[in-house]
Amino acid sequence: MKRIILLFAALSLFSFSAHAGEIKIGYVDFAKAVSESDQGKEATSTLEKMFNEKKEVIDAKGNENKKLEEEMAKQASVMTPETLKKKQSEREKMVKEIQRMAKDSEEDLQKKREEYLQHIATELRVIIEKLGEKEGYTAIFEVFEGGILYMPKGFDLTDKVIKSFNETAAAAKP
């Protein structure tokens, strides 16, 4: 609601200043710019690789747990109560370890995802600001966060921002 009020306030301000000169407004789909930029795709690929590596380790531990469970089921009748109790304790410990590994993995991935997003968002804001100054925009809104429900496609700067971002990032690579 606060953003919508800010948007109306900004549009009101622009209508008053319309007499002073031309108003040029654009918008950017920030989520699309992040996900479709080269850095965004690279970050997604890296996160998927990390996820698969962690999943492989957790799955291996899960298979180990399943084998232990099967062994216990087959040999429960011939095990001494002490051996059975020891195996149950071992299995419970393994289940806790798997749960901890899954939780840690999820937290690591979330933290890494936020780092990538923060880095890309910071760079995108610089690109958007330069684009705005260079092309004389009065305002550039973010399509979702800016509360824009409709604006003609002609005001969409997302592809232009992605192109500029990719070119800037490629030029910065050694």
Q: Summarize the main sheet.
A: 2 strands, parallel
Estimate the global geometry from the Cα principal axes. Answer: rod-shaped
What Rg is obtained from the alpha carbons, in whole angstroms?
27 Å
The chain-level structural class is: mainly alpha
Strand segment count: 2
End-to-end gap: 45 Å
Q: Beta fraction of the residues?
A: under 5%
What would the average pLDDT be, to the nearest integer? 87
User: How large is the count of helical segments?
Assistant: 5
Uncertain segments: 5-9
Relative helix content: over 70%
> What string, H for helix and E for strand, traces the elements in order?
HEHHHEH
Q: Major sheet: order of its strands?
A: 1-2
What does this molecule look like?
The chain is rod-shaped. Strands 1-2 form a two-stranded parallel sheet. Helices cover 75% and strands 5% of the residues. It starts with a helix and ends with a helix. It contains five helices and two strands; from the N terminus they run αβαααβα. With 174 residues, it is mostly helical. Helix 2 packs across helix 3, helix 3 packs antiparallel against helix 4 and helix 4 crosses helix 5.
Topology, pairings included?
Layout: H1 2-17, E1 25-28, H2 30-36, H3 38-75, H4 81-134, E2 139-142, H5 158-172
Parallel strand pairs: 1-2
Helix pairs in contact: 2-3, 2-5, 3-4, 4-5
Please provide a brief summary of the model.
This protein is mostly helical. Helix content is 75%, strand content 5%.
Task: Fill in the keyword field for this structure.
mainly alpha; 75% helix; rod-shaped
